[in-house]
Prior knowledge:
This protein is of the alpha+beta class. The chain has a single domain (5-112, 119-137), classed as 2-Layer Sandwich (Alpha-Beta Plaits). The protein is 22% helix and 38% strand. It is built from two helices and seven strands. A hairpin with a 5-residue loop joins β3 and β4. It is elongated and about 55 Å long.
Amino acid sequence: MADHPRKVLRDKVKTKILAGSTSFGTRVYTNRVIPVQKTELPLCLIYITNEPTERDRELPLIRRPKLVIELLEKTGPDLDDKLDGLCVEIEKIFQGDEFLDDLTNEFYLSATDIRIVEEGGVKLGSAVLTYAVMYRTRALT
């Protein structure tokens, strides 16, 4: 059975981040649920929140997922600066790659949300970078 296109998309983003020599090292995950230990920060989560689709005459579906790259960091007095620095690392990797190595028809940063989240009783800083994506698929077999 072939991988779903969403998995292929998440894996491509992970590969590019791992190749980018970031502060995350190998702490890049294609799953939104992982056990977070404060000693293992910063880390990067890659997931898709929703994927509206529409029919197309050429190929069965036009897919428009919202791909999220969530960056988690320890809280502290310089949290905003740390999160901004992590965002710069990610944005540089994908800057100018509007087709994600020809995997998509469209790929761009559409929003960034900075907030405090609680994971396993631990408060963390979170930067959520949302990328708008568009790609076309044939019927899945």
